[in-house]
Design a protein that fits this description.
Layout: H1 10-38, H2 42-53, E1 58-60, H3 61-67, H4 72-84, E2 88-92, E3 100-104, H5 106-126, H6 133-152
Helix pairs in contact: 1-5, 2-5
Organism: Promicromonospora iranensis
GO molecular function, one term: DNA binding
Keywords: DNA-binding
């Protein structure tokens, strides 16, 4: 029996259901691999990566929340866990006492670098290697279009 979303035709329904399956299954698969190999969740990996890629040695929590597409409360909770593990350090922002700065520690950088090969191998196995070059180009076009639409949406 073929599933169909109400108020969508067969083509729209197949595309939408396929996309929702991917964004349900892929994060769980990435979490499993990262947890098994390095004890990190995918979101923790994203946070550490954001700090590693920052042009400055420290980032304000608000900038890191934006870079990781997160809310401040969620990021604060995750940073608490990462700080307990010695992977990041938080400190008061000297320019704005209300703000908090975050920086990647040497152990955090080491853990991130150690986790990258397995993460990339999983991304390749689950997504990249499953697609032809033409499909990769199409995926890039599709995700660019959707991302642009999502980032243009006004926040409630």
């Amino acid at each position: 029996m073929k599933r169909r979303v109400p108020r969508m035709n067969d083509q729209e329904s197949a595309a939408w259901l396929g996309l929702t399956s991917v964004f349900s299954l892929l994060p769980a698969a990435l979490d499993r691999q990262l947890q098994r190999d390095s004890g990190l969740t995918h979101f923790e990996f994203v946070v550490l990566s954001g700090l590693q890629l920052s042009p400055e040695p420290t980032m304000r929590m608000t900038a890191l929340a934006e870079a990781s597409v997160s809310t401040l409360p969620r990021l604060s909770h995750v940073c608490g866990r990462l700080e307990k593990r010695g992977l990041i350090e938080r400190s008061s922002c000297p320019e704005d006492r209300r703000a908090t700065n975050v920086r990647l520690t040497t152990d955090g950088r080491r853990e991130l670098i150690r986790s990258i090969p397995g993460h990339i191998a999983t991304a390749r196995r689950l997504v990249i290697d499953a697609l032809t070059p033409e499909q990769l180009d199409a995926l890039t076009d599709i995700t660019t279009t959707i991302t642009a639409r999502l980032t243009q949406e006004p926040t409630p």
